[in-house]
Amino acid sequence: MHREDNGKSSGSPSGNPYRTHTAGELRAKNVGERVRLAGWVNRRRDHGGLIFIDLRDRWGITQVTFHPEAAEVFAAAEELRPEWSISIEGEVVERPEGNENPELPTGEIEVSATALEVLNASETPPFEIDRERPVDELLRLKYRYLDLRRDRMQENIVFRHRIVKHMRDYLTARGFLEIETPLLTASTPEGARDYLVPARLYPGEFYALPQSPQQFKQLLMVAGFERYFQIARALRDEDQRGDRQPEHTQLDLEMSYTTQGEILDLVEGLYTEIVEGFTGKRLLRKPFPRLTYAEAMDRYGTDKPDVRFGLEIGDVSEIARGSEFKVFRGAVESGGSVRGIAVGGLGDLSRREIGELESIAATGGARGLAYLKVGPDGLSGPIAKFFSAEEGEALKEALGAKESDYMFFVADRDAVVFESLNRLRLHMRDRLGLADPNVLALCWVTDFPLFEWNEDEGRIEPMHHMFTMPREEDLPLLDTDPLKVIGQLYDLVANGTELASGSIRIHRPELQQKVFSTVNILPEEAERRFGAMLEAFRYGAPPHGGIAPGVDRLIMLLRDEPNIREVMAFPKTQAARDEMMDAPSPVAPEQLEELHIAIRPRTQRGPEDPPRENPVT
Q1: CA end-to-end span of the chain, whole Å?
Q2: Which of 54, 200, 373, 518 shows the greatest Cβ crowding within 10 Å of its Cβ?
Q3: For residue range 552-607, what is the model confidence (pLDDT) as tens digits?
Q4: Domains of the chain
Q5: Whole-prediction pTM value?
Q6: Rounded to an integer, what distance in angstroms lies between the CA atom of residue 133 and that of residue 135?
């Protein structure tokens, strides 16, 4: 076990009956000193008439030796078991020559115990604490207080603390103020479902827990604080996955009289310091590349691209339009596109392997996956006969294909083409080991469309949220062609994971209402939902913008963890349950009566509404 902070104390008597030093602090220079240590029994070993224990606390491990000459203490040590909480007193001595442990910072010394106090015995834990072995996650979450004793989990939480502290220091040094915003507020659905809290003093009325501090941080700009930040809790009642939780933490920040470039430079500086100062990972490129949304989609098929490797998507629609292959030609003529990627290093794929790749493309909506292989004598494959030699050369040039490469194509609506090729591209990344796990490729994606079309509901809706400032040159399009309006939106992406999302905000009430009207929120409804902010805008609101980096996702990525539950102290399960506290759970009937709430039988409930994406940040 190694801790980055050994919790050094002065070593002088302090009146503390449990410890004078931490278990990660003692070194050869302390030999001859009398010390007290406190912590848990990590391991106990009997060797040749001696008893050894590894005493563990938050800062590390120290070996403690019990000698049979001290009969009473030795007898007590024979009873010790893992995870007992104890305090010992003794003398720091050098370990015998050859018995040093170079893997421990305290490995040159041990403490020869002269006193032992058992502070609390422990039942046998449901899983091993001192070894990193696979444990069922539900069991870990049920006994999270034990899981958090494990080395890896302690290191994750300590690392998280250091990163959050650096965020605070970085922003404070640049004139930002940390200001808390309410957790009980009004319900203003902004993407995901709200968690509702019944108001006892106002029967039939509810508070909502904030999906983000969106309106409050904008109101702080109207209030004149100019540079605000908060390590904020965001609560969203939505379906869970590996990098989501019902409640998560974000670094929320907002600036007045600012520009998109200033915000991006500020956050880029913060992330550069974090990666280079706290990890052994390497940034692929500085400054971070900046891609427009259109560029990211055209090149990678996603607005969250992993740019550590190539396999960029090529558009072959014009070649397909003139070809004899009806599937390709029909996709283009119906308003779609034909695009592909070239992949080397695959050898000769079997029919089964081709089928697996077709299945991967199908998860993105593709109805088929066409392919060609580049050989010394031209192209081969099921569709090779449909292309002339000139068209074959054009396909190779468009995708950058070389001899022995496979070219894979999807023909469909753009959304399907992009999603299918993105999934195929990521599969090839993992299959061929194309991305260095020790490299972080951060990039900005900017210039998102302000609106998108919801086919299921037949209406326009915001791509991110309704408070985003359109580009000035696109303002006339709000009246004529809103789907072509580009917003001043920006996301920070690392290795295919979105780390932050933000925008320049609307600060003029008439423009804000125009955006509301575009998404069919009439003035009366807008006043009901967002009245406080709209009124505030009438009092000289400054231009402002901000961003909300996700703390959990960042720590997850920097620690190479598979999901954010591994970097949170007390997460919920992927099904949004708290196994340790058994929540959510029923409450007493008198509590419901006091809140004027009646519970309908489960069989009478209607189907749940599907969750919506794009939460406000």
Answers
A1: 38
A2: 54
A3: 999 999 999 999 999 999 999 988 999 999 999 999 999 999 999 999 887 644 44
A4: 28-120 (2.40.50.140), 154-290+444-568+586-594 (3.30.930.10), 309-434 (3.30.1360.30)
A5: 0.91
A6: 6
